[in-house]
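User:
I study polymers; will you set down one protein's sequence and backbone structure tokens?

Assistant:
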Amino acid sequence: MNASPRPRILFVVDLPELNGGNKQISLFAEALAQEGFDAAVAAHGPRPAWMDYSGPYYDAWTDVLDRAGRFDLAVFTYVFSHRLAPRIDAARAAHFCQGFEG
């Protein structure tokens, strides 16, 4: 059960490289955070300096993602991001095979 009264949304990317789709996810997560959502991002690798949003970031190369708790929604943003699905506890999931453009 989610202890937070705010909806928890996790955007899952494969690698945190700078590209249009990942930049859009960063901007979208920040917009949701500004509207009261608990928006987070998970990816294989440390949080990059260009990622300009204020929410949590989970480096999937570590075990921090496994301890992140339950999300109301996990948004898998590219075909390879779905390989993290077994490690994510989410009530609902969406999978955008060819990329996410918020």
